[in-house]
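FORM 7B: Structural annotation worksheet

SECTION A. Query
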Amino acid sequence: MQLSLPPKVTNRAFERLSEINDGADVPQALRVAVEGGGCSGFQYEIKLDVATSDDLVLEQNGEKVLIDPVSLPFLTDATIDFTDELIGARFVINNPNATSSCGCGTSFSM
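SECTION B. Predicted structure
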């Protein structure tokens, strides 16, 4: 039986979230969800949100990343990161469960 590990969040992703929340009256968490759709079957939804009672909360230095229970199995052992490249700055998911992904990196299949 393989152990299911929750997603990991890089220091760079937590640092970017801290920058986003800097000066905010009410800091928000980063929600990472998996939904049906996209060009490969599933797509990531990444947005600022508030925690609900059934979320998995990954926290560092007061910053929080939220994963809902439906998305959690799709994100087992994934890494949530932040990248700043020529094509733009964005949060990215490195997901070992995805068998393929589209060129934009927001859609995947399993």
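SECTION C. Observations
The beta strands are 8-9, 29-36, 42-49, 56-60, 63-67, 79-85, 88-94, 100-101, 107-109. Residues 8-22+29-99 form a domain with the Hypothetical Protein Aq_1857; Chain: A; fold (CATH 2.60.300.12).

SECTION D. Sign-off
Analyst initials: ____
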